[in-house]
Automatic annotation (TrEMBL):
Record NCBIfam families: cit_synth_I (TIGR01798), PRK05614.1 (NF004126)
Keywords, in A-Z order: Acyltransferase, Transferase, Tricarboxylic acid cycle
GO biological process: tricarboxylic acid cycle
Record's signal peptide: none
Catalytic activity reported: oxaloacetate + acetyl-CoA + H2O = citrate + CoA + H(+)
Protein name, per record: Citrate synthase
Length: 402
């Protein structure tokens, strides 16, 4: 057609790659994935080693600054994050204006967007000190905002952060504690949540990280870019899958479908039903994060003494899928989200908070991706082309003649 040849004339070639299945949008030194072999490394370190031996703040430092911190660097970084956990009081007015049944992901994104109005002294995309300040502010304030979104949905009073606590401990207290009541953080729960945050911390050019980069490529500030990334993460094909898994398991438990009938529906693609928490664009093997999550879940449920019938349903679904031709031929394995929801539920989080927890974990990855892009002299505004398939030129017809 006329329009396609126009684009060809202009560029010399045209690539149509719907969903960017085979298109690299950047060069990056942050995260390495080998989807066929089930390998994931942050800055060269295998995810299994980081999950076992590191902490979320240390991994955040690694992703953002490129190296593991020394003891002194970690102390300084932790101290800075601890000092910035408070929110401007006026920001609380914004949070209180949302309806109580607002989805906490919408509240989270709106509040992060609003950080750009409260902290106008850290909006630069070139000034290193300002970028550092917006980085620390985001890392410190996102857990506070997330906990406030929870409190709001429960109709409970807000607490002020306790900056003598670590990031995860503070978040758990802000979420589950009450003013004037002592809240003892369960160290087993805190350790498990810290590990889950590590597992979610980055995943190279996934949908939300690509969103953060695309928005930032127009020189939008870090708060605006991350706010957009939170919206991308909320979708059920991305971070929203962790709550969709629980909804799916709940429906089976309620007897809407037996496990077998449900799997038949999935394979027949009835009403677009999918086995949520299964499949991945990059992993064509067991997601290495899912393997770690499964082990953590076993240990945690045992320690907390939780016996969840939804777990039996999940295990049955996995067992069927791993043997079934439909899933085997398409190389569909559990992804990181298949079992995380069961852990979050055991910790006491309502389903609507699951994707918010993912966002807290993914934040250092978004920040690292945005900063890497801003420092790369090869960066250009992200601007995909299209192949036009509409009408060729035609003449305007006035309204009274149509
Ligand atoms: N259940 C049933 N069938 C599936 C599933 C699933 N979960 N995932 C993929 N398929 C099928 C597709 O229907 C397609 O079948 P076809 O070849 O007959 O057309 C084939 O497997 C290939 O799948 P695509 O959709 O082309 O794969 P894509 O890479 O585009 O999608 C995605 C990846 C979005 C993750 C997909 O597997 C999915 O929707 N999974 C369920 C949602 C989910 O768990 N998302 C979380 C991803 S991980 C994360 O974001 C943290």
């Amino acid at each position: 057609g006329y329009e396609i040849s126009a684009l060809l004339k202009e560029t010399g070639n045209v690539t149509l790659d719907v969903g960017y299945v085979n298109t690299a949008s950047c060069q990056s030194a942050i995260t390495y994935i080998d989807g066929g072999a089930g390998i994931l490394r942050y800055r060269g370190y295998p995810i299994e080693q980081l999950a076992k031996g590191s902490t979320f703040l240390e991994v955040s430092y690694l992703l953002i600054y490129g190296e593991l911190p020394t003891t002194q660097q970690l102390e300084e970084f932790t101290g800075k994050v601890q000092r910035h956990t408070m929110l401007q009081e006026d920001l609380k007015n914004l949070l209180s204006a949302f309806p109580r049944d607002a989805h906490p992901m919408s509240v989270l994104s709106a509040a992060v967007s609003a950080l750009g109005t409260f902290y106008q002294d850290s909006l630069s995309i070139t000034d290193k000190d300002q970028i550092e300040l917006s980085t620390i502010r985001l890392l410190a304030k996102l857990p506070t905002i997330a906990a406030y979104a929870y409190k709001k949905s429960e109709g409970q009073p807000l607490l002020y952060p306790d900056n003598s606590l670590g990031l995860v401990e503070n978040f758990l207290r802000l979420t589950f504690g009450f003013p004037a009541e002592k809240y003892d953080v369960d160290p087993v729960m805190a350790k498990a949540l810290d590990q889950l945050f590590i597992l979610h911390a980055d995943h190279e050019q996934n949908c939300s990280a690509s969103t953060v980069r695309l928005v930032g490529s127009a020189h939008a500030n870090l708060f605006a870019s991350v706010s957009a990334g939170i919206h991308a993460l909320s979708g059920p094909l991305h971070g929203g899958a962790n709550s969709a898994v629980l909804d799916m398991l709940g429906e089976i438990q309620r007897g809407d479908d037996s496990v077998e009938t449900f799997m038949k529906k999935v394979k027949n693609k009835e009403d677009g039903v999918k086995l949520m928490g299964f499949g991945h664009r990059v992993y064509k093997n067991y997601d290495p994060r899912a393997a770690i999550v499964k082990q953590t879940m076993d240990e945690l449920l045992k320690k907390l003494g939780v016996n969840d019938p939804l777990l039996d349903i999940a295990l049955q679904l996995e067992e069927i899928a791993l043997k079934d031709d439909y899933f085997v031929e398409r190389k569909l394995y559990p992804n990181v989200d298949f079992y995380t929801g069961l852990i979050y539920k055991a910790m006491g989080f309502p389903t609507r908070m699951f994707t918010v927890l993912f966002a807290i974990g993914r934040l250092p990855g978004w920040v690292a991706q945005w900063r890497e892009m801003m420092e790369d002299p090869a960066t250009k505004i992200g601007r995909p082309r299209q192949i036009y398939i509409g009408e060729t030129e035609r003449q305007f017809v006035p309204l009274d003649k149509r």
